[in-house]
Design goal:
Length: 100
């Protein structure tokens, strides 16, 4: 699963990806939940930016690996990503398309 952590390093500042997007990249779209569980146990959240991962609707996670949903919100906003009061990110605006 080290590949998942390395993938996080490729996400540009100001962009997010979804759990399903990472699962697709791994070649198995059915593994989105597994990706989430793995990232929740991120061994080094300062190095591997799991805060850039949101659900398929753009919602932040309440079980963020370090500090909770408000820390995730702050980290995203520090990169210029707008997070709504209900902890949502506009995927049309901020989702990274690694193929572009």
């Amino acid at each position: 699963m080290q590949a998942i952590l390395e993938y996080l390093l490729t996400i540009p500042d100001g962009k997010v990806v979804t759990y399903g997007q990472i699962a697709n990249w791994m070649g198995n779209p059915g593994l989105a939940r597994l990706v989430g569980n793995y990232l929740h146990k991120n061994p080094d959240p300062e190095r591997y930016p799991c805060y850039k991962v949101v659900n398929h609707q753009g919602k932040l996670t309440g079980r963020f690996a370090f500090g909770g949903i408000n820390v995730q919100k702050e980290r995203l906003e520090s990169e210029g990503i707008e997070v709504s009061d209900d902890y949502m990110v506009d995927l049309d605006k901020y989702q990274w398309d690694e193929l572009s």
